[in-house]
Design brief:
Length: about 140
């Protein structure tokens, strides 16, 4: 079975995006919710065909946002400071919890951490900065 994006998941991501109050906010919500599904799909023992998976995600991204966006740019956005605007938004968290219950809100920090780990292994650079600080705060919050 391929870990890919089906129509139901696409509908959920678009529903979260519609919770954004501006186009920039909606795009941020879209990127983060889609990226979380992508990262959650990596949590499997199955062998993954990344070329096929990425092609399906990229097709959905192109149809939703247009050219210039890809799953790689989504994951890059999720490792930068701007992602915190989304992750700290009560409106995003409520919409994500409502429309995407299969990914618990309390697991978001783990998936963001996974993304940073992949970025570190690709770049060889240590992950530091506000996103890492946010992950540590969320770990502390959810372990209490």
């Amino acid at each position: 079975m391929q870990k890919s994006i089906d129509q139901a998941t696409q509908d959920k991501v678009l529903a979260v995006a519609r919770a954004g109050m501006t186009s920039a906010e909606a795009i941020g919500y879209f990127r983060v919710s889609l990226g979380l599904y992508y990262l959650a799909g990596l949590m499997t023992n199955e062998e993954l065909d990344f070329q096929q998976i990425d092609a399906r995600y990229n097709r959905f991204i192109y149809h939703s946002l247009g050219g210039g966006h890809s799953i790689a740019s989504v994951l890059q956005f999720m490792s930068g400071e701007k992602v915190l605007r989304v992750l700290q938004s009560e409106r995003f968290l409520a919409a994500f919890a409502l429309h995407c219950p299969e990914i618990p809100v309390d697991s978001i920090f783990f998936l963001i951490s996974l993304n940073l780990g992949v970025a570190k292994s690709l770049s060889g650079l240590d992950a530091i900065g506000p996103v890492v600080d946010w992950i540590e705060q969320e770990k502390a919050r959810t372990s209490q």
